[in-house]
Amino acid sequence: MATTHEQHGHDAHAHDDHAHHGPDKGIMRWIKTTNHKDLGTLYLFFSFTMFFIGGIMSLIIRAELFHPGMQFVQPEFFNSMTTMHALVMIFGGVMPGFVGLANWMVPMMIGCSDLALPRVNNWGFWILPFGFAMMLSTLFMEGGGPAGGWTMYPPLMLQTGNAFPFLIFSVHLLGISSITGAINVVVTILNMRTPGMTLLKMPLFVWTWLITAYLLIAVMPVLAGAVTMLLTDKYFGTSFFTAAGGGDPVLFQHVFWFFGHPEVYILILPAFGVVSTIIPTFARKPLFGYDSMVYATAAIGFLSFIVWAHHMFTVGMPLAGELFFMFATMLIAVPTGVKVFNWVATMWRGSMTFETPMLFALGFVFLFTIGGFSGLMLAMTPVDFQYHDTYFVVAHFHYVLVPGAVFSIIAAIYYWIPKWTGRMYNEAAGKLHFWLSAIFINLTFFPQHFVGLAGMQRRVPDYAVQFTDFNEVSTIGAFGFFLSQFIFIFNMLACCYGWFGRKQTAPARVWEGARGLEWTVPSPAPYHTFEDPPQLPASEVTGVHDAEATHH
Amino acid sequence: MSMKGWLARVAAGTAMALTALQAVAYTQTSNGWNMPTGVTEIAHEVHKLHMWVFGVVTIIGILVFGVMIYSIIQHRRSKHPKPADFHESIKVEIAWTIIPFLILVGLAIPAAGTLIKMEDTRNSEMTVKVTGYQWKWQYEYVGEGVSFFSTLSQESNVARQTGSGVDVTKVPNYLVDVDNPLVLPVGKKIRFLITANDVIHAWWVPEFAVKKDAIPGYINEVWTRIEQPGVYRGVCAELCGRDHGFMPIVVRAVPEAEFKAFLDGKKGGKTEVAAAAPGTASDAAPAAAPAPAATEVANAGAKPAAAPAAAKELGQDELMAKGEKVYAANCSACHQASGAGLPPNFPSLHGSKIANGPAEAHIEQILKGKNLMPPFPQLSDEDIAAVATYERQSWGNKGSVVQPSQVAALRK
Hints:
The structure holds two protein chains of two kinds. Chain A contains 16 helices and no strands. By secondary structure, chain A is mostly helical. In chain A, helix 2 runs antiparallel to helix 15 and helix 7 packs antiparallel against helix 11. Chain A is globular and about 65 Å long. The relative contact order of chain A is 0.11. In chain B, helix 2 runs antiparallel to helix 3, helix 9 crosses helix 13 and helix 12 packs across helix 14. Chain B is built from 14 helices and ten strands. Chain B folds into three domains: 178 residues, Sandwich (Immunoglobulin-like); 78 residues, Helix Hairpins, CATH 1.10.287; 96 residues, Cytochrome c-like domain (Cytochrome Bc1 Complex, Chain D, domain 2). By secondary structure, chain B is an alpha+beta fold. Chain B has a five-stranded mixed beta sheet. A five-stranded mixed beta sheet of chain B has the order 4-10-9-6-7, covered by helices on one side. The chains are: A mainly alpha, B alpha+beta. At the A-B interface, helix 3, helix 7, helix 8, helix 9 and helix 10 of A face helix 1, helix 2, helix 3, strand 7 and strand 9 of B.
């Protein structure tokens, strides 16, 4: 490659003397692009915009909960904040964040030039801003945004005003976007690997995304079906979920969680892939138990389809149903445990250094495991009756989603940003960002375990005065965490735009312990990579097996 | 709020935080940061299971995090410059698959045992039907002909309005206090039939380890046997709209004899209920004391449809006085005590067409509801007449007086 391209600047890629088509100029580059790197960048910028918006919503929630009594907002606005916070963070923040990483890294990791369906890729991304514009616009409508919770349970959800059809349509749009992205990932991974890269030589991030993509294809249509039935119940006189017309409100919950539980793993499996990539690099030691990691991921993917009703133990299922869903849910602890043990074994007797990506990956292992422990507690049905719909649950899923999924996205960006931009981030700022994030996230969510156990229910704008102390700590943590993220944003933008005199001096192999095809191309990665399938040297294979090790 | 006021609150809050460990949650057998030990056999078992699984994960956590921290300290490059290159061990991997599985079996067996007991509602000695409404609870003593509504106490309701200016820390049992507590006998196996009238709610009393969704069209069963007299508080646990956080549950558990007296009082007349209430409940005083008028209101809901057709005519003053109380208990959450509502979802009643128009339309709307407004057929003819009169003659409205007979005529 004769040239390198600025990936993030809107104007800094003028010298394209290559015969291949370079990017368009100006804004049209981003609108028309079918390049996986451009689209990955767009996805990531979109994701962090949504993290910001959803973060503001969480601050409104936490500000109101700082003290008992209603200080700032009305209860229905509070409810629409909790509803929208969840929708924005899940569908706008975490999912596009991981799709952005997949866009950038999957082709570079398996040695192909782009995703298999580049135009679909463009379309999949550009649906999102419209979908979210529509969803967020409901906040300004008469009657306010949807306030029935992101789970959209009828009959409550059917009381939503003008916002209702807009919400349903935007959920459909987000679903279409996710499905196109997932199909693209599957087709790319199964068809476009460079010769020699067998399935069991793929980097684990690719594996986790392959399984995630299947989960997406399986469950997003289920969500679409569920919300469509809601729509017809409200406007076309059907009674799928209204008891008065012979329908069943609990049916919605079953259908929703048949989507919702695999969705939880959609949000965390790619995170497992990221952490399984970063820890070996900084431990300077191959991933321990590559095969068992793959099998564990597949097992978790399978189990995710048969545990949905643990979200609804209190609806009054038959005893046999409650027992089945309890046992199946507890079983998930086995493959998840295997993963954690494998990460620890990867670190064991390695030669570790603690650059920012490694710090976030280790923070992930610690804090995600805490979320896993509370998950095991929640799996036990009789005790879940006490935990259900309390702040204990809020603490649990935020532990797996924030220091879990979000930390892994942050770790991945620190890890690959020198590859993407050619510029190294500021390590001191990165470390400061990590420590502030780790401290504040625990301040935010750890006390929520206590208030939940002591009896504070979820989704309330006000609480009995006994819960004041812990809620104050939680609010302080939330504001601290939000503000700390600006250290990260500026650090990354400085890499994108070359602020503070940062030069494009990153070497091809940014981290000495890193393996994988992405490190064989220059930094920043050229606009087009691997137009011819590359050789796959054994030294770049991350999936190391004993059988092969003896052959070499 | 001014910056200064805000800072003062932060300072006060910090002072409170220092006394955190003395804070007691509304669940009196909780220490404020753990699950209550409870007052039923099942609740004790659930608490034990909770501590057991917590102990197990704590030990696993100490082991795993211990190994990680040791590795982070000992296997850093400065101490351990040459990495090992092992990357697989079938034996170790089988071990850490089998051992967690066995631990899970150790957790699942006692959990299944407790669950089976919890679901065994046979041989109950009495039944209470619990119905969730937006945003209150109705309790019916099945077979006794006694039924009443239970709503957030007036004191909490005033204090919790946005910008009320009331110091909620001074409100006794803020948000976990009701006008009419559910009174139950100790030592009896009580079966609850739980359902809802509008959206899904969940009836939760932590001290009993009872939480069950109240779902329209479903009747869920759950049971308890309370060991000791006392006042046990709970909340609605399933998001049910605007005032989800403001429909608490208070159960007053009393000895059998007192319970009998309570039921008899309920059957016989209206005011005995309030008189019977303060008897046992020393710390229930705020719950039971301010009830007389509201009790009467809710009390009348026992068999509203069967209310005598030949209702007597009431004077305007009487209707207005009663109407104000019915309004406070049933309407003010949305339409506000001021009648100004919270537009656009909850319209203002000032000069409203309904309140100034024909009485029939007004009564119909109360009986049948409209859009977000739930129907209120459970109120007696007298209460509906009173509240309609109150709405039609307050805030400058010029509607007619409504008599119970008009309501009775429209019920058919």
